[in-house]
Every structure is written in C-alpha cells, then in structure tokens.
C-alpha cells in the first residue's frame, strides 16, 4: 500500500529502500487448504483460517476475468464487512484499484486479489451500518461520535461496546443520505476531507488515520463500480470512519505541537517527502490521502494532519 502510494506520487526511487526496511515484518502468505465454491461462498466468509483459500480463489478470478467484473461482483458482498483487518483490507483494495486504473499488469491484479482475499477472510461488520435518516454533514456527524478512547481489546470488543452505547446509534444514523450517484461521490469526498481535518485536531497515533484512509480507498474504487453501488459504498465508508473515530480518538482532544506545514505550490509533495523519510506506512498513506484533499480543496488542515502524524507516530529507522 505504501509502496503503491510512493509510486503514484512520484517517489518510486524510494520504494526499494522502504521495502528493505518493511519486509522483515511480513509473514509468508498462507497456503490454500480447501477450494472456495463460488456458488456457496458464504460459508467461507469471515473465516481467517481460509485466507489461503480466498487468495487462491481471487488470484484465479482476476486471471480468468476482467478485474472490474470481479470487483463489481464481490464489492456488495464484501462491503458490509468493511471492518476487516481494522479496514486494512479495503484500503489495500483501494490502492490496488488505483494502480490498475493507471496500468493493468499481472502483479497489480495479484495485489487486488490479495486485498479482496484478506477482506473476505477477515470480513467483520460494525454496528450501525443500516439505513440512515440523518441530515448532518460529515464534519458535524463525526463530532457526534462517542469516544471510547481505545484501551486493550480486539475490534470485536470495541464493537460490542459500541453496540451498547446509545450515543453511537445516534451518531451512526446522523449523516445525511445521498440522493443520487453524483451526490454520493460528493458526500464521500466531504467525508474524507472532514476525517483528515479531524485527525489534524485529534490525532495522537496510528490507528486513527484509518478514519480518513478507509473512505478515501472507497473513493478511489467508486469510478469503476456500477453507480447503483455508490450510495451503499458511502454508507459503509461512513460506518467505518465513525467506528475508527469511536475506538481510537482520544476522549479529550490532546493536540500536539507539530512543525508547521510548508506552503506554496509544492507543499503537498514536500510533506509527502517527509513521510517517506519518516518511513511509517500509515503516515505515508495518510499523506497520500491528504494530498488528494489538499489538491481538491486547498485546505491547509490537510497538510497539518500529516504534520501531526509525523509528530505522533515514531519513525522507522
């Protein structure tokens, strides 16, 4: 994901050095055990023990069919389980799709297959993902989200706590509903913008960056999906972003005093270069998303969010 972001942003020459540092953290991909039956796939969904089976299934699927057709078929099946891997799976899928939209290669199809496979194997729903009747903007809706302030526990534990909190159900239903596909795309862009700004004001660590990077991953996939899937995609993006905020935002904002962001026409590239030097993959992905927001809106809070992350997250040697 981070290497794709570096390549997309013109820092391909830094990828090799970054991979040398990151590679020791990786495990071998699990081997397949049983074949995924495409007519009875639901039995393997959300089963981490079948990760290798899902990798084999999607690897063959993207070799035999147009990857866009595979994505259109599986996107609505996977979307309710967007919390898979604390949203890492959908983020990985989004990076793979951006790469494929730029240039279709076997390696990029393989990366899409892995993103979809880890999503299928880790499929997990978050509470509050049903229909909404709210009218709030993304910024106002994020402000309504209760803060659990992290603590020990798994995503299953966090979601159980959310399900018991009436404030969560109020917040989860508060975001306005998109009225048509283009409105859904605009609403998704607003959510990404607001989540980046939220990190600038509240960021203290790694996991909160997913409140912005997960919906932005969906925004990158939206153009290759049938328009009937756009509104459900925004609903899922909102639920994921709000759940990340609930689980990882500090109960009381504790702002840092990061270095000021640079200004000028190359400011986003300068900030991104600092994240490449810093080396943390989450910070690099946040900078990638913030670049999108800054380019679209000119909002200085987008680059300030990255400076906050640089101050909050330890760098990689």
From TrEMBL:
InterPro entries: Questin_oxidase-like. The keyword Oxidoreductase applies. One of its GO terms (molecular function) is oxidoreductase activity. Keywords: Oxidoreductase. It comes from the Bacteria. This is Questin oxidase family protein. The lineage of its organism: Bacteria, Bacillati, Actinomycetota, Actinomycetes, Kitasatosporales.
